[in-house]
Amino acid sequence: MARSAAIRALRFACIVALAAARPLFAQEIDCDPGDTEVRRLTFTGNRTFSDSRLAAQIATTPSGALYRYARFIGTRHCLDRVHLPLDSIRLLRFYQDRGFYDAAVDLDTTTVGAQSIDVHFRIAEGQPMRIDTLTVTGLDGVPDSARIRRGLPIARGQRFDKEALGSALGYITTALRNSGYPHADVFRGYDTYYEQHVASVQLTVVPGVRARVGAVDILVNGDTAGSDQRIHDPVIQRLLGFEPGDLYSAQKLVDARRYLFQTGAYRHVEIGLAGDSIRPAGDSLVTVQIVLHEGPMRDLRVGVGWGTLDCVRAQGTVTDRNFFGGARQLELTTRLSKIGIGYPLDGAKDICTPTVQKDLYSDTLNYRLSATVRQPGLFGLGPRNIPSLTGYSEQRSEYRAYFRSVPIGGVASLTRDLGPGLSLGLAYQLEYGRTEAQPAIYCALFNLCGAAERAQVREKQPLAVASISFARDRTPSAQSGGSAIRVDLRHASKTILSDPTLQFNTLIGDARRYWNVGSGVEIAARFYGGAVVGNRISFRGGSDGLVRNVSQYVPPQERLYAGGPNSVRGFRFNELGPVVYVVDTFTTLIAPNGETYYRADSLVVNNRWRAVPTGGNTLMVANLEARLPSPFLTDLIRYAVFIDAGRVWNRDRTSTVAGGFRQVRFTPGAGIRVGSPVGPIRVDVGYNPYKRSPGVAYNAFRGSDENRVAPLYCVSPDNTRPIMPGQNGDPPEQRETGPDGVARPCSPTFAPLRPTSWLKRLTFNFSIGPAF
Q: pTM (2 decimals)?
């Protein structure tokens, strides 16, 4: 028995010594001429831990999957013959630290080529050691001791895992230091019984004296007198979230550091216990010391760029981080787009893409002028709550959909910091503006085809929206992995002063997940979706004077759109989902009863048309993208392969939500990213194998250049709306009913011809910034 224990002790000492040396002798994974490539790394017998978990414990690294198959892209890794045999010992130590003292590891290598091998580890885990008894002493008299015991990450009957044991020590220490015990410490002890495969664990807690914050010493720019500091001590103390007399909490010190950084006024923030408070003592008061270095209180940022749909765009921001004192932040922002084609900054249309030149609503400058004031802790709300007030004026357009003009608007909001990466936002927005949408949208969705009818919804109206949002941001970066979630709920109604025609409820969710799978390969996934519910409203107008009831009326600017460089990339911008068509030509047919009809033939090749996205009230989009390293200029160029899926539809036109999901469109593609100071320059090519969705077809009587005011005539291939001659030189009138008085809808039967070449099924997207 004694000899067996001595052998175990000697073996364990050797394992510890060799494993500890690993950081000093990392594997030489770079390949030189004549080196042997590691093609594959595999494990068998590992029931408790995954292959990826074990691979992270050793030095041997296989070549990347892309390199193994393509041989011209990805990363090639070669064998280090010094560290390969030590990897077995490293795995053995890993298993023993997690309670598998009977574990055994064998190494096999197989030659698979002239200069490549496969490495395989065979593992016999054996019976794990279990915790037989767990004793925690020293918590008597500590408030919430029962809660601390319940939260322990180890328990009797669990596997004796030294990693979990270390987590238990950290958990108790953190809980105590956040409960007023700044000098709390925990000591561990354990006895192992190899033959019985059990262990006895003892945790001894030394909480020390419970303390409160006695004083707060503030050192700014190296001078306690604060002769040159611009944000004064009373303001700093208001931003901390604690004050003298409060129970000490290490987490509150961490939060205070975050609150001060969030002001943007400091380059360096350091918060901790003063020197005389660090040493354990019987004093129940501790001194907190804060060291701050202020940064510039004002800055100016400007930028100019070019976009496929924006033409030339520019923006500028002026920030004052101590506006009239009190760490109050003022931000003045100007954003311009459509420069070159939009009035009054037009005159250079040639620098814009043909796509923008054909867009009806790109002929006017888009802009946003805004001023925002925010001040953490205002009205005694505490630093977790950041109120802000924004005033703005803007003009914006959505490609081929609508133009929104808001002479004046304002937003009052409150953002609450719920902890690292968590936030809750409340906002109330009130603006006075008008929306000018494509006539085909009003005509197809709401049966408002006449200019007089459309004028009712183009008038300036107040729009009031109350919203609540929740965000969780946990390192949303493909380089380091992580995730991000955001949920937004918006409500507009007469109750909160919105116009009766602008009432709706919107729910939008966005979830993203990032993985770094090694060898420079990153996987990114996103799912976002939403729904809008409108109210039933009535419009009166037209030559017939009929009242038209529209159920679930959703204003064009609040409808949901998809397709484009940051959505489903196989579809052009906003063209995933319902569309209507405006055609150039149609034929006039006279029925035997003398009725006249306008009809367009979708099979005629030279009949030019343009699609007008109408958006929907339900949206679903999912993206999966693999971002790959380039074999050359690795720090500058990356590749991507992706598949996007999505659907936009109207619930009132689809019997069930499930019916909408059954029509999801999938578009694969690939792209290249080139690094730049303003973000990655991105070119993506998506393949769209689908036919264009059939839709309603219209023709503007006075020509496409007057679509904003002209009536639209239904010209679908099976149109049954008769045409009556106009009176006194007026344009012809299209009746919405037949001779029998029955309503005749404009049917969605116009289906453009499918491109005959696969090349024409490719959709090219150019943009700056990540896809998501």
A: 0.76
